[in-house]
Amino acid sequence: MRILVVEDEQSLARLLKRGLENEGYVVDLAFDGQAGQQRIELHYRDYDTIILDLMLPKRTGAEVCKNVRKSGITTPILILTAKSEVESKVTLLDSGCDDYMIKPFVFSELFARIRALTRRPESLLPSELKIGDLVLDLNTQKFKVDNKEIGLTLKEFRLLEYFMRRPDKLVKRVDLTDNIWDFNYDSFSNSLEVYVFRLRKKIGKSKTGVVLETVRGTGYRLKTK
Ligand code: CA
Fold first, then answer.
1. Dist. CA 133 → ligand 1 center (Å)
2. What contacts 24+ positions apart, CB below 8 Å, involve 165-170?
3. Distance from the alpha carbon of residue 12 to the mean position of ligand 1, in angstroms
4. Residue 189 or residue 82, greater confidence
């Protein structure tokens, strides 16, 4: 799936690109409203979703959205807006966007919104991740180890999904803090350890020997044998 991100803050644009690419999306960037609108008008068939910042140079996200809707383009659009701009909620929804998110936001929530916007018939989506006797159902969020269901919190689920998509690969702490938590990850750096500890206990019931190991000073690895 391909996503267009129109965002003038370069660092945020690149962070979004990296985060979305890690989730398996192909991402193109545009840095102002005019360039964004041009790209949408010419290439909208290439995109499954468009993420538009509200405050953009040359043309606001709401204007871009309104204009492309006027030309009959129905590609799902999600608008990003700062907290101080929330009063423009009505403007946003009038613009014809499908959803909006307030900055700063948590990546996992953005991913969930994108999944909702791009929802395809279930049969086309891989709905289960399997590693040894670990089975994670991505639709129902149910987790089974050795055929027994184990409860997960939403954050544990996101964390486990991230690990299970990368079996036997080194997952750096910074990847987790960038992609799963939010931009102010300092406040989460301790709780990451706590979540990993809890997840490790839950995975510990594996009979096929799957373990979540710590790679000293770097991160973690979901080891399958
Ligand atoms: Ca902006």
1. 45
2. 165/129, 166/222, 167/131, 167/222, 167/224, 168/221, 168/222, 168/223, 168/224, 169/221, 169/222, 170/215, 170/218, 170/219, 170/220, 170/221
3. 9
4. 82
